[in-house]
Every structure is written in structure tokens, then in C-alpha cells.
Design goal:
Helix content of chain A: over 70%
Subcellular location (chain A): Cell membrane
Mean pLDDT of chain B: 84
CATH architecture of the largest domain in chain B: Orthogonal Bundle
Low-confidence stretches of chain B: 1-24
GO biological process, one term (chain A): transmembrane transport
Order of helices and strands of chain B: HHHEEHHHHHHHHHHH
Structural class of chain B: mainly alpha
Helix content of chain B: over 70%
Organism (chain A): Promicromonospora thailandica
GO cellular component, one term (chain A): plasma membrane
CATH class of chain A: Mainly Alpha
CATH class of the largest domain in chain B: Mainly Alpha
CATH architecture of chain A: Orthogonal Bundle
CATH superfamily of the largest domain in chain B: MetI-like
Pfam families (chain A): BPD_transp_1
Shape of chain B: globular
Number of helices of chain B: 14
Order of helices and strands of chain A: HHHHHHHHHHHHHHH
Largest sheet of chain A: none
Strand content of chain A: under 5%
Oligomer: heterodimer
Mean pLDDT of chain A: 85
Number of strands of chain B: 2
Structural class of chain A: mainly alpha
């Protein structure tokens, strides 16, 4: 630090520029946040007149209105159900696959791995309409079930890459010892590999929790507007009306989409950051 | 390849058939059967629809309830002569040519700053992750509230004596507003990713550059950037794909492509043609075009930012 401040001003231009930009950006991250949280407890008039003022009363009317107007309670329940079911399914598919690929020594394993790696290039979004046809063909159109089936597929390439690289670190002798004792492959997976892979599993769970909970276009098209089925991300924008949106209610609704994510981020900050970093690096 | 030979070696050398159990084990190792369920799942739900996209692009399918008929290249001819398509292409081009370099350059400077571990860098890193956590609808709704005529942005400008604006409804600013939202959500995550790479730059290299009298600006662009260039390329590809494809969500939530196509991007055009106008052949033809643009763009970024050392 002392050495750095000793540099002449000319040599510190880089730090001064990047520092200024960094804190301006930080402010641009914080201000919308602050604005949206205080707005959740204000009326339209208060929001328009003094956007940054603290709410005068801690009034939950907006929250209750949002819940009633867009059936947010049900929507949160649907989101939780969809996310948890999709996470379980992802692990059920990805764990055996990663186990097989990590142990495989043949060419087939390499090909399979290559197929999943190509998945990073597939613009699945562009194929939204065929996906919709698939849902109809399976008789699962306008159901959460189809999204529970679909989301793991979108997550498989990254999940398998992360888990395989974890499982590759496990020495073969460990597994051979277990096989000698007559353990089946699935028992080896469960008793030898799983305990060692816990950090990898945590990474996969956290990453996919974010992308499943935050998914928007798939649930919008495939689950549709039925309030009994739709997720929170689909329910939220219905609070925006072309004429006369109640911004307080809209911001109160936004709280619901963010609360679970924030809870997890605050509790597991380090793991979440590591997951987000490895998520892109591997991609 | 060598691993393959190694495992084959002993088996042929031994000659005599090994016990059945042993052989089954080897077969299992050579063919990863436990990967099959995941592979099938992936083929059905991901690869299938993409293949179908390429098929539908060559079909005439003017509505969900009509029977599709082969159309050859008609859809592509229709797409390429459609003014809306070119407007969308121009919008996507602006979005990427302006948005992406700005995002990467700013993210790099932020990462450079964070890596110097200035006071408050922990708070900064905590904050930089925020946009990566927030869903597209939540981000869009907060910006919708801020950009509306009575919202926060105009609330800031008016006391300064500046005219407010209907940012999302004015054709001159709507696309800019969409790009701004994407920059807001993309810079932070890109910055933490790049910072994770810059953290690995050895102190000695930095010290040496300092001794040579390099100022911070040169240190950033002449030392850190070249070392991290290929990684920055990966981040740029990631954000390129996200802008190209995911912009449809932001556009759908904020402007529905309006006013007068001012914010219709290629990705949003696919969505609109499929689910609003149900011109399915057209929609999927644009999908194919976007697929090709995606590959070409990634190739270009790779060329531009490949490792220099």
C-alpha cells in the first residue's frame, strides 16, 4: 500500500480510472436495490415524489396485495417444487454418468464426453418451439412435470463436466478395493465416490438451483399462465400492467423471487461464489 | 489414445480368455453404460429439439393447427426479403458490437482494480456477484420501475434541470435501455470471472513491470490483459451467446420489441414469430440463422482473443 501511494500521479491513472469505474458500478448495483426495497413499502405517489426516501410506515399492504393479485404463495410453492424435483433428477442422471465417464478408459467414453461438451454450444433457446412440440407430443403441455424433465437436460453438460473432473481425482485403488469386496458399481458409486464428491455435488446443486429457480422463458411457454401450475418468475411480470402499474406492489412481488436466492447466497456465500466461478470456467 | 492401448495390451498378451467377471468389468469400463440414461435424456430434450429446428426451417407451417408441407428454401427467402428481419439484425448487431466490447473492457478494468486488493475490495466482490443471482424477470421489473416516466432515473435528472424521458417508449432510447440493462447484469459476473484469472498472475511479473517503470494503466493493458487474453476470450464468448440468445427475455419483459421494432432483436423475432404470429417456418429459419451467427461470432472472438503466448 505504502509503495503504491508513493507512485507519481501519472502512474496511478489506471488505478484511479478503474477504481472510479468500479465504485460507480457498485453504486449502480446498490441504488436499484435500495430503490426496489424501499419502493415495496410505498405507494405510487410516494415512489414518484421522493424515490429514495425511506418509507414512512412499515406497511405490508403492497406485499399482501402482490400475493393476492398474482397468487404468489402458490407460485412460490410451484417454484420450490419444480426446482427441488429438477435438482434431484439432475443428480440422479449426472452422478452415474460422471462416475461412468470418470472410470471409462475406452473411446466410447471420450465420445460421450464430447457429446456433452458440445452441449455448451447448443442454443437451446432457439429451439424453444420444437421443445414446445415435444411437450405436446408427450401429453405434458402446460404442466410443471415437463419443465421438471426439461431443466435437468439443460443442466447436464455442465453438471457432468464438473462432477467428472471431481471423480477423476479419486484413486482407482480405492475403487478396486471395494470391488474386491464384491461391491456392485452402484455400491462403489454410493460408498466410495459420493462422500469424496460432496464439494462437487454442492457446486452443481448451487449452480443449478440458481438457473432452475431463475428460469423464465421455458416455464413461461411450457407451463403457461395457469395459476395452479406457474412458477414465481412467470407470475411476477403479471403484476406489470400496461396502464397504471402499481410499482409498490410490483416491487413487493420482486422481493419474493429474490428472497430464497439471497438467503442461500448469504448463508453459503463462499460456496456460491466458487460455484459461479467454476460454472463459467468449465464452460 | 495411449490409455486405450494400455488397457488393450494385457488382454491380448494374456491370450487365454480371462474369467467372465473380469471381462465384464473391462467391458463396463470401455463402454460407460451408466452414462446412458443421461445421454438419452440429453438427446431427447436438447439435441432433438435443435435437430427439429433445422427440419422445421425447411417446412411451410403457417399455424399450429395447419399441416406442415415441405417448403425448400422458401422460409429463408422470405426471411431475407423481410424488412423486419433486417431491422432485427441491425438491432442485434448494435447490441453486440456496442454492448460486448464495452462490457468486456469495463469488466476487465473492474477486475484489475479488485485484484489490487484496494480498501473495500471484499465489499466490491460481494456486490459484483449480485446481478448473477437475479432472474431476468426480477431485473426487468426493477428496471421497468426505474425507467418509467415517473421512475428513479427521471427523478434524478429533473432536479439537475434535465428533461426526463420515456426511456422504454422512445424509439431513440429503447434499444439503448435494453443494452444498459444487459450491461448492468453482465459486467459484474464477467468482472469476477476475469478477476479469478487475474488473481493467478504471478507477483514477480507485476514487480518486474513496476521496476521497468510501468504505471497502472500500462500494467493493466500490457501485462494483465495479454496474460489473461484467452480466458477473457472465453468470458466474451459466454456473454456474446447470452446477449445473442437471452436478450429475448429482457426484450419480452420490457418492450415486446417495440416501439415499432426498435428493440426487436433476432432472438426476440424467433419468439414472436413462433408464439405470437405462429409463422413457424419463418421462426425456425431465423433460429438457423442465429445458430450460424452464434458459431461465426464465437469463431471471430476466438481469433481476436486467442492466447498470445
Amino acid at each position: 500500500m505504502a509503495q503504491r501511494t508513493a507512485l507519481p500521479l501519472r502512474d496511478r491513472i489506471g488505478s484511479i480510472t478503474s477504481g472510479t469505474l468500479a465504485w460507480i458500478y457498485a453504486a449502480l448495483l446498490v441504488v436499484p436495490f435500495y430503490y426496489f426495497i424501499v419502493s415495496a413499502f410505498k405507494t405510487n405517489e410516494e415512489i414518484f415524489e421522493s424515490p429514495l426516501a425511506l418509507p414512512t410506515t412499515f406497511d405490508l399492504t403492497n406485499v399482501t396485495t402482490a400475493i393476492r393479485q398474482a397468487d404468489l404463495g402458490l407460485a412460490v410453492a410451484n417454484s420450490v417444487l419444480t426446482t427441488v424435483a429438477a435438482l434431484v433428477l439432475t443428480l440422479l442422471l449426472a452422478l452415474p454418468a460422471a462416475f461412468a465417464l470418470a472410470r471409462s478408459t475406452g473411446r466410447a467414453g471420450k465420445v460421450v464426453e464430447g457429446v456433452f461438451a458440445l452441449g455448451f454450444l447448443i442454443p437451446s433457446f432457439a429451439a424453444l418451439f420444437p421443445t414446445f412440440l415435444l411437450a405436446a407430443a408427450l401429453g405434458l403441455f402446460h404442466t410443471r412435470t415437463f419443465v421438471v424433465f426439461l431443466l435437468p437436460a439443460t443442466a447436464l453438460p455442465l453438471s457432468i463436466v464438473i462432477l467428472t473432473s471431481f471423480m477423476r481425482t479419486i484413486p482407482r485403488e480405492l475403487e478396486e478395493a471395494a470391488s474386491m469386496d464384491g461391491a456392485s458399481p452402484l455400491q462403489v458409486l454410493r460408498q466410495v465416490y459420493l462422500p469424496i464428491c460432496v464439494p462437487g455435488i454442492a457446486t452443481v446443486l448451487l449452480l443449478n438451483f440458481l438457473s432452475f429457480w431463475n428460469a423464465y422463458l421455458y416455464p413461461l411457454i411450457l407451463i403457461g399462465p395457469d395459476t395452479a401450475q406457474r412458477t414465481i418468475q412467470v407470475a411476477l411480470p403479471t403484476l406489470k400492467v400496461d396502464a397504471g402499474t402499481d410499482y409498490g406492489v410490483l416491487m413487493a412481488g420482486t422481493l419474493f423471487t429474490l428472497l430464497p436466492v439471497y438467503l442461500v447466497y448469504t448463508l453459503l456465500q463462499r460456496q456460491m461464489q466458487r460455484a459461479l466461478l467454476s460454472g463459467a470456467v468449465k464452460g | 489414445m495411449t490409455a486405450l492401448l494400455d488397457t488393450d495390451g494385457p488382454r491380448t498378451a494374456v491370450g487365454a480368455p480371462p474369467p467372465a467377471v473380469r471381462r465384464r468389468g473391462t467391458l463396463r469400463e470401455r463402454f460407460p453404460g451408466l452414462a446412458l440414461p443421461a445421454l438419452v435424456w440429453y438427446a431427447v430434450f436438447m439435441i432433438g429439439p435443435v435437430v427439429a429446428m433445422f427440419v422445421i426451417a425447411f417446412l411451410s407451417w403457417p399455424g399450429m393447427l395447419t399441416t406442415p408441407t415441405p417448403a425448400g428454401l422458401d422460409n429463408f427467402a422470405r426471411v431475407l426479403t423481410d424488412e423486419t428481419f433486417w431491422t432485427a439484425t441491425a438491432n442485434s448487431a448494435v447490441q453486440i458490437v456496442v454492448g460486448l466490447p464495452v462490457m468486456i473492457a469495463l469488466a476487465f478494468l473492474l477486475a484489475f482494480y479488485a485484484v489490487q486488493k484496494p480498501r473495500g475490495h471484499r465489499v466490491l466482490r460481494y456486490l459484483l456477484f449480485i446481478p448473477a443471482l437475479i432472474s431476468a424477470p426480477a431485473t426487468a421489473m426493477v428496471f421497468y420501475a426505474m425507467l418509467n416516466p415517473d421512475g428513479l432515473v427521471n427523478g434524478f435528472l429533473r432536479p439537475l434541470g434535465l428533461e426526463g424521458n420515456e426511456w422504454l417508449a422512445d424509439p431513440a432510447t429503447a434499444l439503448g435501455a435494453i443494452i444498459a440493462v444487459e450491461l448492468w447484469s453482465g459486467i459484474g459476473y464477467s468482472a469476477v470471472l476475469i478477476a479469478s484469472r487475474l488473481d493467478g498472475v504471478e507477483g514477480e511479473i507485476v514487480q518486474a513491470a513496476r521496476l521497468d517503470g510501468a504505471g497502472d494503466w500500462r500494467l493493466a493493458w500490457r501485462v494483465y490483459w495479454p496474460i489473461a487474453q484467452d480466458f477473457i476470450g472465453v468470458v466474451a464468448m459466454l456473454q456474446f451467446l447470452s446477449m445473442l440468445f437471452n436478450s429475448a427475455q429482457t426484450v419480452l419483459l420490457l418492450t415486446q420489441g417495440g416501439p415499432e421494432n426498435a428493440t426487436t432483436t433476432l432472438a426476440y423475432l424467433i419468439y414472436r414469430k413462433a408464439f405470437v404470429e405462429t409463422d413457424l417456418g419463418y421462426s425456425q429459419a431465423v433460429g438457423v440463422v442465429l445458430f450460424v451467427i452464434g458459431l461465426a461470432g464465437m469463431w471471430a472472438i476466438r481469433r481476436l482473443l486467442r492466447a498470445t503466448h
